[in-house]
Design goal:
- There is one protein chain.
- By secondary structure, this protein is mainly α.
- It is 73% helix and 0% strand.
């Protein structure tokens, strides 16, 4: 974690938030820290996936069923509700920016969820609950840097 923080997170944070950072100078606005966090986490996830390789279930062409769908639904609902406070709270006040962040957060998550449902229908001929939850969380993560 220390190496990740020093070698990956800190340089990206400097690029985006420090007045001398090249992304800051280009006008990049990171509303709630999502660009720095999701960029560094996404790169780390990609490297981890490349290092670990495909799952055994994928190599054997087996279906992988989720362990507890009610918990997935509950977790998605809690994340969605909590994300309102995170994104709207990043405006540091009850103002127009907070309202805009709240609306953008809800609309982006709902739109991503609907898109995921449509993609499930196109590819699998039927939507599933886990896909709906994945779409909602994808929308939350995607909107964060520009919510306000």
């Amino acid at each position: 974690m220390c190496l990740f923080t020093l070698l990956i997170y800190c340089p990206i944070a400097h690029w985006v938030w420090h007045p001398d950072g090249f992304l800051f100078k280009m006008g990049v606005l990171d509303f709630a820290g999502g660009a720095v966090i999701h960029l560094s986490a996404g790169v780390a996830a990609l490297v981890g996936a490349i290092v670990l390789g495909r799952r055994d279930t994928h190599l054997k062409n087996e279906n992988q069923v989720p362990s507890n769908i009610p918990y997935i639904l509950l977790g998605t609902g809690l994340l969605w509700f909590g994300w309102f406070g995170f994104n709207a709270g990043s405006s540091l006040g009850a103002n127009e920016v907070a309202i805009l962040a709240l609306l953008n957060t809800n609309m982006a998550s709902a739109a991503a969820m609907i898109c995921w449902i449509l993609l499930d229908v196109i590819s699998n001929k039927k939507p599933n609950v886990v896909g709906v939850c994945i779409g909602a969380v994808v929308g939350l993560a995607t909107v964060t840097p520009a919510a306000g």
